[in-house]
Amino acid sequence: MYKFSVLLVLLCATCNLALAITDGLLPNGNFEYGPKASEINGTLVKSSKAIPNWEISGYVEYIKSGSKQGDMLLVVPEGAYAVRLGNEASIKQRIKVIRGKFYSITFSAARTCAQEEKLNVSVSRGKSKPSDWEILPIQTMYSSNGWDSYSRGFLADDSQVDILIHNPGMEEDPACGPLIDSIALKLLYPPRRTGKNLLKNGNFEEGPYVLPNTSWGVLIPPHIQDAHSPLPGWKIESLKAVKYVDSAHFSVPEGKRGIELVAGKESAITQEVFTTPGRFYDLSFSVGDAKNYCEGSLVVEAFAGRQTLKVPYESKGAGGFKRANLRFRAVSKRTRVMFYSTYYTMTSDHSGALCGPVVDDCKLTSVRRKPGHS
Question: The DUF642 domain covers which part of the protein (predicted)?
């Protein structure tokens, strides 16, 4: 009887843990289940809980793919439905998580008729703590079809959190807001440094959830710090986003994930590592193109210590990469490693989509002997 009770407790604990781990869409995260006919007026949702699994506030519309707004055709990237958030409107869902674990949120958004659109993304951090807002500018579109996927990270310090997306817009037309679709969650496992690589997550394999039915990657917004980064180990220290790309839709030098620097010098990633002053180190990495029609002369600039290396890559937009190495001497106990693209580049398919070189397989190792010694 005692053994049976212990087994039952373990099974219950395992079930609770399994329910808390969600890698993929949130319940009704693609909004395919919509309001009843009595709870909607045209496209306007009338009840706060009319959309299954969600609580809404303000002017929220339930949009079917192919609908028109004036001369604008509203296209939904996944499935047949999405929601549109008008002025001060929001959608919210409470989810179960594992306390103390890191997560990333991924969602898709598209501008409609507003010019200065932004989104507030909030994750509540316990019943006694206020929401932690993060403002994501979505004025710049990076894909060719008008939709982009965005990510943000958070540390769960409660067993349940509220995920909320809010449009703070003040447009004259209350319906002039962004479309939202495909909201997903991923449990992150922050990697550690090893003797073979002093950089954490140097191959970028750990990162935000990539929506399988989209082909435009996931944007990691600017000014994201390491503690809450959806790209563990790295900071996005730039004015523009970087793009997280996967091998299912792009060419990636190593493994299944990489980073595309899509906005010139305004799109940078950095990481700070512990070093020994006076010791030499090698920073090696791959530079290539994502096989997304990003053609021409691409250049990645790498910084470490007081050294800089420019790595040119002549891209035909068909995939490929080259290796590069920067040897430097550490001048302090902490060394900042940075990568960014020298130039702004657009794809050659005349879509106007921003693109850039891909950085991957970054390794930082200590040089055991002095340069020139065998």
Answer: 24-186, 197-363
CB 277 within 8 A of CB 332: yes
Say which residue the tokens 């996967």 belong to. Answer: 246
Which conformational region is residue 226 in: left (phi greater than 0), alpha (psi within -120 to 50 degrees), or beta?
alpha
The runs of H, that is alpha helices, within 93-135 are: none
Does the residue 354 lie in any domain? yes
At a CB cut-off of 8 Å and minimum separation 6, what does 365 contact?
196, 197, 198, 281, 282, 284
* Nearest of 256, 254, 255 to residue 288 by alpha carbon: 254
| C-alpha pair distances (Å), 342 with each of 187, 325, 367 | 33, 17, 28
What is the DSSP code (8-state) at residue 224?
Answer: B
Report the C-alpha gap between 39 and 5 in whole angstroms. Answer: 47
The domain spanning residue 322 has which CATH number?
2.60.120.260
Query: Which of 149, 142, 154, 146 has the alpha carbon at shortest distance from 182?
Result: 149
DSSP string, 65-87: TTEEETTEEE--SSSSEEEEE-T
Structure pTM? Answer: 0.88
| pLDDT above 70 coverage of the chain, percent | 87
Domain count, the chain: 2
The model's pLDDT over 7-57, given as tens digits with 9 standing for 90+, comes to 443 344 334 444 554 689 999 999 999 999 999 999 999 999 999 999 999
- Lookup: tokens for 282: 């090698």
